[in-house]
Amino acid sequence: AADVTNRRLIVVDVSSLEIVEAINVSGFPYDLQYVSGRDELWVLNWAERVTGLITQVHGDNGTLAVIKNAMEKLTHTVTDVPLRHAIHSFHITDSCHLRDEERFGYVTHIEEPGIHEVDLAAREISRFIDLSSRGCHGTYGFTYSTGSDYGFVQCFTNEKKTLQAQYPIHMKTGTVINVLTVNTGLPHISPDGKYIVSLNEHVISALYVNEERTIQIGEPIKTSMSLSDATFIARDDGYDVYVTARDMSAVVLIHASPSGMETQKLLTDVGLSKKKDWDRVKRSIVTGCEYDARYLATPATAEDAVFIIDGQRQVVSGHAQKIRGAQALVWVSGE
């Protein structure tokens, strides 16, 4: 968990729900990504203290750092990753089951019309995918489907950055497949890469990539909640999608299948967020790795805790205490 206020990372043993380590970082940790194949934790640090949700207003002010041997029980150290420019966000696909041949992460920039590809082994920028010819003026959300080799990036489509669209991209060639104005928002992808669920303020929209790699647009779900984050648990013919909000403590459970999305239930016993955090702080939710793949975790800042949800039973199974102000979470190991 990222303890932004104290510029450190908190390591929690999920089996005992105890804090086992605190790792100091050079910046203010905002987002965490785990690379299972390399056993590395990548950290997006913000140059200035951020007390709320980072949006396009904050521009590009992020840096990257990496922690090696993340699963091992030792005193961890942090290594800064040299980049040419400050960044806005960093994305690694399917952090629990990254394929050996999958070697890249992706960086978005509010001030640049495309995305940079990061070689995870070399820890450097390997290429720039320029989207300016298709009217992109800046990027701030991205996800990647390994199965189809499609990327989905959220672009600003005017210089004032008041209009947005989602661009499906063929990652091998860097060509834009389509420009979607009806399926916008921050994209989240299922582990098999077939479902792309996007959160846009009060609208949950979904794309489905079928076996022929054709992109199907589903019927969106509208809600009064200010949507925050989403994660997936495999079930039946698709996935259960757990969605958090910034303005309420409940977690919405939606089932996504090739035929569309359906709201199933509302989990209301997942702990409370502090009132001051509402509407301005992302409430993260993450799925467990490997043997813990049935579990999810989400912070409850009002209770200084992280709550664990049993995805198979669809109920809260416990919580870890004495974790103050957690904003970002990552699940490192299931062993």
TrEMBL record:
Top-level taxon of the source organism: Eukaryota
UniProt xrefs under InterPro entries: Haem_d1_sf, WD40/YVTN_repeat-like_dom_sf
Protein name listed in UniProt: Follistatin
Species the sequence originates in: Nematostella vectensis
